[in-house]
Write a structure and sequence with these properties.
The chain has about 325 residues and is mostly helical. The strands form two sheets. It has a three-stranded parallel sheet with strand order 1-2-3. Helix 1 links the parallel strand 1 and strand 2. Helix 9 packs across helix 10 and helix 11 packs antiparallel against helix 14. It binds adenosine-5'-triphosphate and magnesium ion (MG).
Length: about 325
């Protein structure tokens, strides 16, 4: 029997969730919630680090993200869904952790580096954005999570978390915090429909779980294939071909997929055919999810978030008191 562990993961409320979230993290969360204690965080404070001048984008996305959660099967009876900003203990932990990582280390972080480039921050990077990996370390450790189901863009951030955990426990001589490991799916990173390395809310290059069927069809039709595959009879490339990257993720019948790949490589299989097969697979996946989304009531979401945030706060408060105690803070530790 598998030991019960704590799972923590979350999403930035910067828009609706997409197929990258589904294959990269949501599917694993739904599977893990059956056996483990799951915490799912709406990372509004983290989203504020690069949207501080547009808080409406965040506040207006919270309900949509929750609808997506419930529609894919995150069950509030099994998972604690909460809002980051409603658990202020996380920010106290962040303050302690900020001392345990160098600015140079954060600047060298590959995920932060590529996000800076993508967002065109250049020299205008704020301290808040640079330090979001530290706040993420607080989110994970506050719940003593050992499993973090994420896409591979999060690996360097989990590394920062574990470095902070080790430093904290060593410096303050207490094994208060625990290290976490990423739970990756077989699709660690879903490419964007435009061929960019990652489907991403901020780039708008994704098929969203809430997209109507016609929009899905149009997005799939607009996907890049192999630019040298001009005539149906031309041999085509499967590697780097967005349609095949999506077929890898969404076509369940792997022997049909192998057959399609070899026919495409040989020549004689048209782009319209592979796009139509992909369209069928994605429509079949998303139609029931969209139907369930329709049934979600806004009031139920508010109740779920209120109860979840209170529960999360209780757990985080306990960890923060252990952390304060390890450092030597608190009335009981006052030396006379
Ligand atoms: P933003 O543009 O606001 O950063 P995002 O689309 O990158 O949004 P996040 O909220 O940052 O989404 O990511 C939430 C979770 O989903 C993370 O665990 C991340 O690794 C995973 N994820 C996001 N995009 C993908 C993707 N294209 N493939 C696999 N996993 C992904
Ligand atoms: Mg992201």
């Amino acid at each position: 029997m598998q030991l019960r562990q704590v799972v923590l993961t979350g999403d930035r409320p910067t828009g609706r969730l997409h197929l990258g979230h589904y294959v990269g993290s949501l599917k694993n969360r739904v599977a893990l919630q059956a056996q483990h204690d799951c915490f799912v965080m709406i990372a509004d404070t983290q989203a504020l680090t690069d949207n501080f001048d547009d808080p409406k984008r965040i506040t207006e996305s919270v309900v949509g993200v929750c609808k997506d959660y419930l529609a894919v099967g995150i069950d509030p009876m099994k998972s604690t869904v909460f809002i980051q900003s409603m658990v202020p203990e996380l920010f106290e932990l962040t303050s302690y952790f900020l001392n345990l990582v160098s600015v140079a280390r954060l600047e060298r972080n590959p995920t932060v580096k590529s996000e800076l480039q993508q967002k065109g921050f250049a020299d205008s990077i704020t301290a808040g954005f640079l330090c979001y990996p530290v706040s993420q370390a607080a989110d994970i450790t506050a719940f003593k999570a050992t499993l973090v189901p994420v896409g591979d863009d999060q690996l360097p951030l989990i590394e920062v978390t574990n470095e902070i955990v080790r430093r904290f426990n060593r410096i303050y001589c207490k094994e208060v915090l625990v290290e976490a490991e990423a739970v990756l799916s077989n699709i660690r990173r879903l490419v964007g429909i435009d061929g960019q390395t990652k489907a991403c809310k901020s780039l708008g290059n994704a098929i969203f779980l809430s997209d109507p069927s016609e929009v899905i069809r149009q997005k799939i039709n607009s996907m890049y294939t192999d630019p040298n595959h001009v005539k149906v009879s031309d041999p085509g490339r499967v590697e780097g071909n967005v349609v095949f990257a999506y077929l890898d993720a969404f076509l369940d019948d792997k022997s049909e997929l192998d057959d399609l790949k070899s026919r495409y490589r040989r020549g004689g299989l048209g782009d319209t055919v592979i796009k139509s097969i992909l369209n069928d697979a994605v429509q079949a996946l998303l139609a029931p999810i969209r139907d369930r989304m329709e049934l979600v009531k806004d009031d139920d979401i508010k109740d779920m978030l209120r109860e979840g945030s209170e529960r999360a706060r209780t757990v985080a408060t306990h960890t923060v008191s252990e952390v304060r105690d390890a450092i030597g803070f608190g009335y009981d530790n006052c030396k006379t």
